[in-house]
Amino acid sequence: MMRALIILCLAGLAVSDKIWSFQPTVTFDCGKPDKHMAFVSSSIAPDPILYPGNVQVTLNAKVLKVLPESNFKMKLTLVKETPFSMVVPCFRNFGSCEYDVCEMITNNQDIFCPLFPRGQQCGCPMQKGTYIGQNLPVTLPTLGGSVVAKIMEGNYKGNITFTSNQQQLGCLGMEFSIKANEESS
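Below the sequence we write its predicted structure tokens.
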């Protein structure tokens, strides 16, 4: 099984430059009509994303109903579309993983607290209001050398779904491309 996966990855690597092109980054609100949070605008830079490397995320979200104090989850689902479609597995907390939102806020207050509306406590439950972050730095984890970077190169689709007790509270959809960062090789 592992051998077949390696062969598929190497085959994809060999033909990847010939059968696809980078797509522009797009983000959009994919929440249900009864959502608790709405994504007004968001962006990811650079475009395409360079791997390994850093990205900057800009976000404008509205919390329409108070978000929970517990069982508040964020599920990232990523699908690599080129050179063939495959779900990106969760590996070392990177890829299609689930996270506890309140724990993330508590453990990364330097990143999340500036997003909170002025005068609101940084943490859960998240109160109604507008949450804004400009050019938030995100370092992509380095999972290997130039071969891994080349395998990761391609077009992706995904979404970040926020839930509590199996109920969807909000959703942010995205389409982006990853390009191997030649300068980091």
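The chain is about 20% helix and 40% strand.
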